[in-house]
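Hypothesis: this fold can be encoded by more than one sequence.
Test: take the structure tokens below, design a sequence, compare later.
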């Protein structure tokens, strides 16, 4: 089958090349692009859920079988049926009398919660549309560049967000919650009174560490781990600060570690008790929001028209057109492409790294609590010295990324040397229960001691070209390459890269200017015009407002990002110049 597919692929590529030749003019040449994203490799899928039919289907089939009427064959059979029906009526009357007497005091069995239904592979496939799986796993810092850009451009109205509710860490063979805010520190039962004072003192220092250079200047050339040890912090506090607050490896420099800690602390309390937000329906909503704003003001999207090749001018060496999968030639002055679609010949001088990723569907949370709707960030220190730090993001069903009674778990780390499965399987085996065979039930009494059961798992590697210089690609000057995602938790690098490409295309224009609100659009002449800066041309009236979810507006000098705190509560922080956020409950 593999040979047949390769043969068909080779034949199709030859046919495509013949089509290109027909579209090329004199003095032109074609530069082929990859027909699929080559940045993803070592893809492995495992299914551990039972492949038995759903319990509901079995019960419906049984009920249908019992509901089929049966005709008595003889008079004796009719008489027996009448006697049985009369005895059933007497029993019903007796049960009704007993039920009235016991109605005031329900039995203990009635008060017990119903057992969870078994989640089968059939159920997962049936509810497949409820899963939104991101190839890239990131969170949004509440004071990060992405949130600032969403507010500045007024794109935040198109999306809705939830607060990350818990920050966890893996230590001494178990998962613990990390106290990071002032309220968490003083309310923590994990820390002693002395540890609470030591932690608050150190975090207060990190908030404005630049003003106290004498505290760390002797360690500017040392690691952050060495600096923490000199502050007389306990091992417990050192672990929390290094892995869950600064979220850096022990070898990172002191100044870099202090900056990471400072950034974490400054993001606390803006929209919730943690520094992070997560968009409903997944990170794929973020580019969709920007595409929506672009479309409202004239952007055009050709869906299902992949680009097969670039048409280059032999004399200037620049890209002058593209040819899509339908054989249509489209002229262009610039072309922006992701690294995964660049051919190997054009990438031969680049030196990239690898990211190991895993996506799991589990049956319960990694740290059960009173609420099942928790969004958790978990950091797992390197298993071996010099190994990668593994970051885990656990999403509940209220994020609209998975079906009810399941959790979607993302694992990310820098690849050591092997495949993603080799890098991340040891962490999965420590924190989760992987059945030996699909549908295997755990032994009685081990439900609490074991980790969440993995129902489905996906492992893959992604190429990380965030550190690759643009000059490393053998491409025309008007072809702009976007790097693949990096391992960072935030999106700062992607925002910087997007702005850099924008400056090359439109050096005199403002990057992501604020879009006017629908009520601010003035109808003058043939069409509506926006008052916001950078929108002097006519804009269509339809579609200017948000179409999905709860929206939050932006006034001049104010900012708004809708953030959902719980399953049914949402907050709309609005701040003026220099004001602190003021969350307001909105049902």
């Amino acid at each position: 089958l593999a040979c047949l597919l390769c043969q068909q692929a080779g034949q199709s590529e030859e046919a495509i090349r013949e089509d290109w030749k027909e579209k090329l003019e004199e003095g032109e040449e074609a530069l082929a692009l990859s027909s699929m994203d080559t940045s993803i490799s070592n893809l492995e899928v495992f299914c551990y859920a039972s492949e038995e039919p759903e319990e509901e289907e079995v019960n419906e089939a049984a009920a249908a079988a019992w509901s089929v009427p049966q005709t008595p064959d003889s008079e004796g059979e009719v008489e027996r049926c009448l006697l049985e029906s009369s005895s059933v009526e007497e029993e019903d009357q007796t049960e009704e009398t007993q039920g009235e007497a016991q109605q005031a005091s329900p039995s203990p069995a009635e008060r017990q919660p119903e057992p969870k239904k078994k989640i089968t592979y059939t159920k997962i496939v049936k509810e497949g549309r409820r899963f939104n799986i991101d190839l890239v796993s990131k969170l949004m810092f509440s004071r990060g560049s992405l949130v600032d850009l969403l507010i500045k451009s007024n794109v935040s109205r198109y999306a809705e967000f939830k607060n990350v509710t818990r920050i966890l860490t893996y230590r001494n063979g178990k998962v613990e919650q990390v106290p990071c805010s002032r309220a968490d520190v003083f309310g923590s039962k994990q820390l002693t009174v002395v540890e609470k004072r030591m932690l608050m003192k150190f975090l207060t220092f990190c908030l404005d560490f630049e003003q106290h250079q004498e505290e760390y200047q002797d360690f500017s050339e040392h690691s952050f781990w060495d600096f923490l040890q000199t502050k007389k912090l306990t091992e417990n506090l050192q672990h929390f600060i290094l892995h869950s607050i600064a979220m850096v490896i022990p070898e990172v420099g002191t100044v870099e570690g202090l900056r990471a800690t400072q950034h974490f602390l400054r993001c606390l309390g803006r929209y919730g008790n943690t520094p992070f937000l997560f968009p409903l329906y997944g990170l794929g909503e973020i580019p969709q929001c920007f595409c929506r704003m672009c479309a409202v003001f004239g952007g055009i999207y050709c869906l299902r028209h992949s680009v097969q090749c670039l048409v280059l001018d032999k004399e200037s060496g620049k890209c002058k057109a593209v040819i899509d999968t339908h054989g249509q030639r489209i002229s262009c002055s610039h072309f922006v492409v992701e690294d995964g679609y660049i051919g190997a010949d054009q990438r031969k001088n680049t030196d990239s790294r690898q990211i190991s990723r895993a996506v799991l569907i589990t049956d319960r949370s990694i740290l059960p609590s009173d609420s099942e709707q928790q969004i958790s960030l978990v950091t797992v220190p390197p298993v071996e010295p010099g190994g990668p730090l593994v970051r885990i993001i656990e999403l509940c069903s209220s994020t609209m990324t998975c079906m009810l009674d399941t959790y979607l778990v993302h694992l990310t780390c820098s690849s050591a040397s092997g495949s993603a499965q080799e890098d991340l399987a040891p962490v999965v085996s420590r924190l989760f229960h992987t059945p030996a065979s699909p549908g295997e039930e755990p032994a009685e009494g081990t439900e609490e001691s074991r980790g969440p059961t993995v129902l489905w798992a996906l492992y893959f590697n992604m190429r990380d070209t965030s550190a690759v210089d643009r000059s490393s690609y053998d491409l025309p000057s008007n072809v702009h390459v976007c790097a693949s995602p990096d391992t960072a938790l935030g999106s700062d690098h992607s925002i910087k890269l997007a702005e850099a490409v924008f400056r090359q295309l439109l050096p005199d224009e403002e990057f992501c200017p604020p879009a006017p609100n629908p009520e601010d659009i003035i109808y003058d002449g043939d069409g509506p015009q926006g008052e916001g800066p950078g929108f002097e041309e006519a804009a269509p009236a339809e579609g200017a407002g948000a179409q999905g979810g709860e929206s939050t507006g932006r006034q001049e000098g104010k900012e708004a990002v809708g953030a959902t705190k719980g399953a049914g509560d949402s907050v709309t922080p609005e701040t003026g110049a220099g004001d602190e956020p003021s969350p307001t409950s909105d049902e």
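The chain has a mean pLDDT of 79. The CA atoms of residues 377 and 393 lie 5 Å apart.
Hypothesis status: open.
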